[in-house]
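Dig into this one:

. . .
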Amino acid sequence: MMAPLSKWGRPLFVWLAAALLAISGLGLWQSVLAAGEQSSSDIAYAHRGAFGYDVYVEPGILYSEEFELPDDEVADENDKPATARIDSTDEPPMVLFRDIMEELLLSFTYEFECGEPAVVESSDVVVTIVAENPGLWHKEMWRWEETHTGEEFRVDFPFEIDTLEADVDEIEEEIGIARLPKDFIVTAIVHTAGETRDGDTIEVEFTHTLRAILDDKKLELEGELERTTGGGSDDDVSWTCSGRFDYEAQLEYNALYESIVLRTESLPTAEVEPTIEPVEPKVVVRLPPGATYFPSLVDTIEARFSYVLECDRPVTVESETVRITAVLAKADTWSKELLLMPETRKSGPFTLSFPIDIHYFDEVVGAIEEQIEDRGGSYSIEIRAEVETMVETREGTIDDIYAQTLQGTREGNTLTFQKELSGSQEGVIEVEVESANPGPGRWKILSIAGVCVGGLALAFLGVVRVRSSRRDAVAATVPHLISRNLVVARRLAVVVVAEDQVKRFRVPGHPNVGAVAVAVGPGGGGGRHQPFLGPVLKFAVDGHRFGRLGRRPFA
């Protein structure tokens, strides 16, 4: 049996239990509040973009160090070349007649030469056939993509006249605008990558186009079959690229050519090696950005766009979608958008190369002016790069669009571009950051345990208090019993009471005796019974638990 609490023990126990409960409750409340705290944070970022371009021109007198003036003397009529009759031994014509043609095959041959010993790691070639109505629409009808190694290769592909014509007829029927003849543009783009013996990197892009004009009776090829460009790198490594289109037409036997095959190159024979005349490379000069250019001398314009996103937070995922277009416009009268590069996905900083075909721009503008009957004057060129950026950080996500333009003007016989090629755009996003939540950690668990222990302790003290109050109510009758049934034995006061009035109490004047309990057995009639004196043990009186009698006789 637990000993009764002393006079000062019970209040001290109550205060300790209450303090434990209060401290534990406060800790639990603080842990719950900390779980829902949020704070705001700013993520700063900046888009950085830059255009660049190189203009390659024919040197002529303007850009040549050594040149010869043209002879002003009138040439003698006897010096004029005689008109040759086309036969099977002459160079095949650039006009093919559909009624006698059964099949047409095209080929593209590419050769790369470097001024220093070099190894060509790869040459990626893309050949496309695009149908168009100049100034109105254009659509890619066919595409070939191949990768080659080495300094030269050849790609063969069919030019299916009937299929291409049927596809164009379907488009014209849908839009309600038909046109004869029908225009097709055959384009070959080669990207060559290599390395010289000294470790210098080679990155070259070559483009060659051939136009095919088709009507009911003939197919006419326009443009140079062969094109050669040269250039150099920043490390003074010179290079030359050559590309050539050839065709082979299968014909019905005819009186015009007296042949069933027409080729742009001689048929190979087993006995005689084909004679290849040396072709002088086409010399071009690279002009820096910011100059005034003359389109009549321009060979190609190779442009590029570079982009990078700067962020003040560590980036976990970054992706960009870039699209490059050209907008041709004349004052406030009209504008036309042309696609220079379709949507391309990149990850991280990048640089994209693309051509600016000023001669094609002139053709488009000329066709538009012819249709609206507003000829002449200057027009503007806006090269626009649009980048959609998606960046993920640990604090939040950046989803933004960056656009940068390169302005140019085509006026008279000149072409100019703006001087400033770089651009930037800064931004800030505000995100809500949730404070770190320790979860059911050590302190939270201790707070919960403290609340439980403190609550149980106070509950126990409450029960003890109630039981003591009930015993005190019974003890109030003790003075009356003592005055009526006092018995003195061995100088100890003993109370003799009925069985249902057994009570423990201390004998006055004998603090060392301890608790005394006396009971009389059944029988009544005032008969005396043997009283007992001993330590108080547990027993019940009137439904209350007090103790039981000791087994040692009192008298």
